[in-house]
């Protein structure tokens, strides 16, 4: 189970990290209004990038912890949690790249 948790950490972390890095580039080029998610755009202007980075790290930790705990009894649900988090990061990355031009 530990190995599976490490794999989830790497995969979810990579997808969410790519989302974060492309978000930073998008905002650097076009400003906070270029972000499609109004909550994130507002968060950037009100709490700053550092808090959004901390929230992204907390999200990855939460997903991995949920996976490790849930996988013992419900491996399919745990896999779904990890898959959704990974796909969300990849979709965010693609949206950011498309918006950045």
Class computed from helices, strands and strand pairing: mainly alpha
Mean pLDDT: 95
Low-confidence regions: none
The radius of gyration over CA amounts to: 15 Å
The 3D shape can be described as: elongated
Number of strands: 0
Characterise the protein shown here.
The chain has 101 residues and is mainly alpha-helical. The protein has one domain (2-100). It is 87% helix and 0% strand. It contains 4 helices and no strands. The chain is elongated and about 45 Å long. It starts with a helix and ends with a helix.
Give the SSE map:
Blueprint: H1 2-30, H2 38-47, H3 49-71, H4 75-100
Please sum up the structure shown.
By secondary structure, the chain is mostly helical. It has four helices and no strands.
List keywords for this structure.
mainly alpha
